[in-house]
């Protein structure tokens, strides 16, 4: 089977999967164990490349004064982002903005292809005024219009052969009341969550029905109540700009107990099949390219928990990881790889098996299923091993690929540097390519 046909079997990233439960989370979420976790998502606002759909309740439930406050706050908040259609400056790192207002009905004032500068956005958003007579807040229609805008910008139904950019879509919904069929709100929220992020801002938190709905449809950790602050909005938007493409693997997401937020990390984990030959972790083809991927560094408890959850369905016996001897010397220090093929210290976290000998004169390490392990309760521990496949019988490696972030621009197609003949991502489960999009309204 050719490489192209093999790649057709890859899975579509879990963040795009359809579920009857909202909001959606990536498939595996772990709790923060208190030690430093993974590669953080960059906070570079000026490099963001988002599709932001703003929907503002302009009914009397919100009131003209609060509408004015919202528009002035948005004018200030989004002045930090490069708003463009790509006509000047960086051809990739820019953000597009659409504006919807809603009362009894929703109106698209500007779609995602209209506003072409920060100045135009400032003028457009500050021109929005609240109604003094319309007392209906039709969130259903607002979300339907938002979904249609987002859907129209998706690059293709099929991910292969598609070189267009899929900018991460974000719906920022300002709400003060709710009327109409709430079931439709949930259904449309599910479809939006297939493609992007929902950030609701509640301007009437004493309204229990509204609060319940907005909490339910929000992307986890991204529900805000009045008064919202710029740092929270920046965090939510830049988290939305940190994701794994369908081909890269599962994104590390950690629940932070101190903030009760689900924090995404800029790493995408997947199990890669090693096709043959010796495992040379200095070989950039092991995980595609050392600039964008490397054998996984399991240097925190949360990362270890995540990997074990990921492996639960794979039912493997052993997997190579990124732990290796410095300089590939049998007496070198144990180190992890990072992007670019560089070394970083092993750190304080370790997960050696009870009978493992870290002083063994070998230069690689693997996660190995331990006695008593079951599919429901998999037990994996590190063991030092040879780097030669025929010595260990291992045929897989856990790879960490760089997520798409504000600093790392991505397209939807598989990059040419991943056309390796030495390894390939593992065949996914329970996902069909045709589920990338929902049904357009």
From TrEMBL:
<dbReference type="InterPro" id="IPR016187">
    <property type="entry name" value="CTDL_fold"/>
</dbReference>
<feature type="domain" description="C-type lectin">
    <location>
        <begin position="287"/>
        <end position="388"/>
    </location>
</feature>
<feature type="domain" description="VWFA">
    <location>
        <begin position="51"/>
        <end position="253"/>
    </location>
</feature>
<feature type="signal peptide">
    <location>
        <begin position="1"/>
        <end position="19"/>
    </location>
</feature>
<dbReference type="InterPro" id="IPR036465">
    <property type="entry name" value="vWFA_dom_sf"/>
</dbReference>
<feature type="region of interest" description="Disordered">
    <location>
        <begin position="421"/>
        <end position="441"/>
    </location>
</feature>
<dbReference type="InterPro" id="IPR001304">
    <property type="entry name" value="C-type_lectin-like"/>
</dbReference>
<keyword id="KW-0732">Signal</keyword>
<protein>
    <submittedName>
        <fullName>Uncharacterized protein</fullName>
    </submittedName>
</protein>
<dbReference type="InterPro" id="IPR002035">
    <property type="entry name" value="VWF_A"/>
</dbReference>
<dbReference type="InterPro" id="IPR016186">
    <property type="entry name" value="C-type_lectin-like/link_sf"/>
</dbReference>
<dbReference type="Pfam" id="PF00092">
    <property type="entry name" value="VWA"/>
</dbReference>
């Amino acid at each position: 089977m050719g490489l192209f046909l093999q790649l057709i079997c890859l899975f579509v990233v879990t963040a795009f999967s359809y579920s009857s439960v909202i909001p959606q989370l990536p498939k595996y979420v772990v709790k923060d164990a208190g030690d430093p976790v993974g590669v953080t998502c960059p906070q570079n606002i000026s490099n963001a490349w988002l599709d932001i759909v703003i929907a503002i309740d302009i009914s009397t439930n919100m009131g003209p004064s609060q509408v004015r406050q919202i528009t002035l706050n948005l004018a200030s908040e989004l002045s930090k982002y490069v708003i463009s259609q790509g006509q000047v400056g960086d051809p990739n790192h820019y953000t597009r903005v659409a504006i919807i207002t809603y009362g009894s009905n929703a109106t698209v004032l500007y779609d995602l292809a209209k506003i072409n500068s920060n100045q135009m956005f400032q003028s457009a958003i500050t021109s929005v005024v609240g109604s003094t007579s319309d007392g209906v807040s039709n969130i259903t229609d607002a979300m339907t219009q938002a979904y249609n805008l987002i859907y129209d910008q998706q690059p293709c139904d099929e991910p292969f052969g598609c070189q267009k950019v899929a900018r991460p879509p974000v719906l920022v919904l300002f709400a003060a009341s709710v009327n109409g069929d709430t079931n439709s709100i949930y259904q449309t929220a599910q479809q939006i969550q297939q493609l992007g992020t929902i950030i609701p801002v509640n301007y009437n938190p004493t309204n229990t029905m509204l609060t319940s709905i907005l909490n339910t449809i929000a992307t986890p950790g991204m529900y805000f109540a009045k008064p919202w602050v710029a740092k929270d909005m920046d965090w939510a938007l830049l988290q939305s700009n940190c994701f794994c493409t369908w081909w890269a693997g599962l994104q590390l997401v950690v629940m932070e107990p101190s903030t009760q937020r689900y924090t995404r990390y800029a790493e995408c984990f997947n199990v890669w099949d090693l096709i043959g030959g010796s495992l040379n972790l200095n070989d950039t083809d092991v995980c595609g390219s050392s600039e964008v991927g490397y054998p996984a560094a399991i240097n925190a408890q949360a990362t270890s928990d995540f990997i074990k959850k990921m492996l639960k369905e794979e039912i493997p016996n052993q997997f190579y990881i990124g732990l290796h001897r410095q300089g590939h010397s049998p007496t070198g220090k144990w180190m992890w790889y990072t992007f670019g093929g560089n070394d970083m210290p092993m750190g304080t976290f370790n997960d050696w098996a009870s009978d493992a000998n870290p002083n063994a004169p070998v230069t690689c390490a693997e996660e190995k299923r331990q006695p008593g392990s079951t599919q429901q309760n998999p037990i994996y521990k590190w063991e030092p091993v040879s780097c030669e496949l025929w010595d260990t019988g291992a045929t897989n490696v856990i790879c960490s690929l760089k997520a798409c972030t504000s600093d790392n621009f991505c397209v939807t197609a598989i990059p040419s540097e991943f056309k390796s003949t030495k390894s390939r991502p593992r065949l996914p489960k329970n996902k069909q390519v045709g589920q990338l999009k929902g049904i357009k309204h």
